[in-house]
Amino acid sequence: MTEVAAALIRDKDKFMICQRPANKARGLLWEFVGGKVQPGETKEQALIRECQEELAITVAPADVFTQVVHEYTDITISLTLFNCTIADGVPKLLEHNDLKWITPAEIPQYHFCPADTEILKLIMEKTIMNEVYNF
After folding, report:
1. 91-132 pLDDT per residue, tens
2. Which of 30, 41, 81, 90 has a beta carbon 3.0–4.6 Å from 110's, enabling a disulfide?
3. CA–CA separation, 60 vs 21, rounded Å?
């Protein structure tokens, strides 16, 4: 199983999503920025490295938002999504095809990697709970 760390980066009521390059597996699907944990790295270290490599930003990982395991035909991943803030830099497209800041209500307008499906449902549920119950 491949360990993957990803970032849930928010700006007020929006969060960042990135579109995978066309030439990679699951090309042009949307995802959270992040990537594979290398040997000897913690998930947080991997996330910081990946965000620097992919977007030229330094993130500050906080707590874990959620974790999911997903089996693709070519790989099984254990994906840990961290709540993060941008500590330094402005996102630049160094690897991804595109980047968007979207609201939870806009999620259905984008085609995401299948591993993100449960995460996106959780984001929508938490948003509804916050709106209804002021959590």
Report:
1. 999 999 999 999 999 999 999 999 999 999 999 888 766 655
2. 30
3. 25
- The confidence score (pLDDT) of residue 132 equals 53
User: Of 2, 6, 14, 11, nearest to 110 (Cα)?
Assistant: 14
Domains delineated in the chain: 2-133 (3.90.79.10)
Bridge pairing between strands 14-19 and 34-36: unpaired
Residue 68 or 130, more confident: 68
Distance CA 107, CA 89 (A): 26
How many Cβ atoms from other residues are within 10 Å of residue 84's Cβ? 27
> What residue ranges in the chain does DSSP mark as E strands?
2-11, 14-19, 30-31, 34-36, 58-71, 76-88, 98-102
3-state SS assignment for residue 80: strand
Nearest CA-CA partner of 69 in 25, 108, 114, 39:
114
Integer-rounded Cα Rg, in Å, for the chain is 14
Cα–Cα dist 63/71, whole Å: 24
